[in-house]
Amino acid sequence: MLPKSTNVLIVGAGPAGLACAVSLLVNGVKDITIVDAQPAGVNSSRAIVIHARTIEELESIGVAERLVTRGLHAGYMTVRAQTKTLVRADFTSLQPYSQYPYALLVSQTETEQILEQRLNALGVSVLRPYRAVSFEGTNEGTSVTFESGEVIKTRFLVGADGARSLIRKIAGIPFRDPSTQKNPMEEEPKEGESLQEANARLGRPLVIADVHLAGHIPDCINSTDLATFLGPLGFLLLVPLPALADDPHGRTVYRLSCPAEPGKREVTKERLQTVINAAFGLPKDEMPIIDNIIWASRFRVRSATADTFWTRVGGGIVALVGDAAHVHSPAGGQGMNLGIRDAIGLGEAIADIMSKDRLAIFAKKEYATQRLDKFSNERRAMALRVIKMTKVLTWATGLEGDNARLARDWVWWFMGRTTFVNNQLAWSLSGLKIGVY
Ligand SMILES: Cc1cc2nc3c(=O)[nH]c(=O)nc-3n(C[C@H](O)[C@H](O)[C@H](O)COP(=O)(O)OP(=O)(O)OC[C@H]3O[C@@H](n4cnc5c(N)ncnc54)[C@H](O)[C@@H]3O)c2cc1C
Known about the structure:
Blueprint: E1 5-11, H1 15-26, E2 32-35, E3 49-50, H2 52-60, H3 64-70, E4 72-74, E5 76-81, E6 84-90, E7 103-105, H4 108-121, E8 132-137, E9 142-146, E10 151-159, H5 166-171, E11 175-176, H6 195-202, E12 206-215, E13 225-231, E14 234-241, E15 253-259, H7 269-280, E16 288-299, E17 304-306, E18 310-313, E19 316-320, E20 326-327, H8 335-354, H9 361-398, H10 402-416, H11 419-430
Parallel strand pairs: 1-2, 1-10, 5-13, 10-19
Antiparallel strand pairs: 3-7, 4-7, 5-6, 8-9, 9-10, 11-17, 12-15, 12-16, 13-14, 14-15, 17-20, 18-19
The structure holds flavin-adenine dinucleotide.
C-alpha cells in the first residue's frame, strides 16, 4: 500500500530512480518513497558499460565494490575493420587519475539488482506495481495520483520514469533534439507509412541482442576489449558479458548490436549470422556461430534533452533524472552512466535543500532555486555534450556504401595512429574529462 504523504516521491525504479533513492538515504534524507509501474525483474538489460566517473560516484553511495567484483574490466574500446584495429580508446591510460582505469562490463539488470539490494539494506523497498497517472500542484507540494486511485502528497517529485516521462510531460518541460528542436519521442511511424518510408524519415532501427556463441571465437573478441567491427553491412558490436547468474554451465553471454535488416521487422538468427560473417570475413571454420538468441530487440536512435531538469509546480519541486531528462545514441555506452550521475547529484541537492529547512521561507526558497539551477545547468551541459559526441560516433560508425566506408575506415585509422587521440577518446568516454561531473 502507498503512503498518504512523503518528503520525496521517486517515480520509476530503473537505474536512475534507484540511484537517486540510495543517494538521498546516504545523504540523510528520511521519509522517501520509490514506485515503479512494472513488477520486479521485467525491464530488459540494455546498458552494458559503467565508466570510471560513474563507478567513482557509485562508490560514494556504497555500491561500487559489488559491481566491480561482478563485472569484467575492459581496458580498451576498439573500432576495427574486420580484425584490423583502426582506433583504440585506451582506458588503462586513466590509471594515474582514477582507481577504475577500465570500462566495467556488467548487464543493466545486474546493476539494477545491486542498487536495489543496497536500497533494501538502507531500509527502503520499491513499491510495485504502481503507475503514476497524473499530478497537480498544491500549496505545500504536489499531489500524485496512481492508476489504483491512491494519492500521495509530496514535497519533492522526482521523474525517473524514462524517455517517455509522464512527469516531464505534465510538468510542461519541453524535450527536444538540439539540432531539430523537435521532440523525437513524438515522432513515430505514421499510419499507412511503409517501413522504408518510416526508416527514411526517422532513421534506420538498430538491433540489440544477447546471444550465446559457438564455433571459433577470434582473439579480437575478448573481455578486455569492447570491440565494434565496421563491415559492409554496417557496424557490429560484439562484446562478452558475465554468464547469466542462473546458468549452471556458466556460458559467456555476448552482447551484439548492428543495424536492423532493411525492410524487415523481425530479428532473426540468420540475419545476425550474416552480419557477423560480413564483419569478420573469415573462413567458415574460424567464424563465431550464433548458438541461440537469449533476447533481442529493435530500437531507433533518438537524441533530446529537457529544457530544464527542474521546475516548480504549485508549492512543490519537480525534478528529472536519467532518460526522462535526456536520450541519445547508445554509441559509447553513455546513457545509463549519465542517468546514474544525475540521480546521485539530485540526491545530494535535495539533501542540501532539506538541511536548510530552518531558514526563513524566502531564504529557503532562494537557496533551493540556486541549488537546483546549479544541478540542472551542470547536468544539462553534460547531456548536450554527450549528445554531440554520440551523434559523431553514430555517424562515424554507420556510413554505408563502399567508397564512404573506405574513406571512413581511413579516417579512423589515421586518427587512431596517435596515442593522444586514443587517450583523449578514453577520457571523453570515461566521464572524467570534466572533473566535477
Ligand atoms: C537498446 C538500448 C541500448 C542501450 N545501451 C546502453 C549502453 O550500452 N550503455 C548505457 O549507458 N546506456 C544504454 N542505454 C540507455 C540506458 O538503458 C538508459 O539510459 C537507462 O535505462 C535509463 O535509466 P532510467 O532509470 O532513466 O530509465 P528506465 O531504465 O527507462 O526506467 C524507467 C522506469 O520508470 C518506470 N515508469 C515509467 N513510467 C512510469 C509511471 N507512470 N509510473 C511508475 N513508473 C513508471 C518504468 O517501469 C521503468 O522501470 C541503452 C538504451 C537502449 C534503448
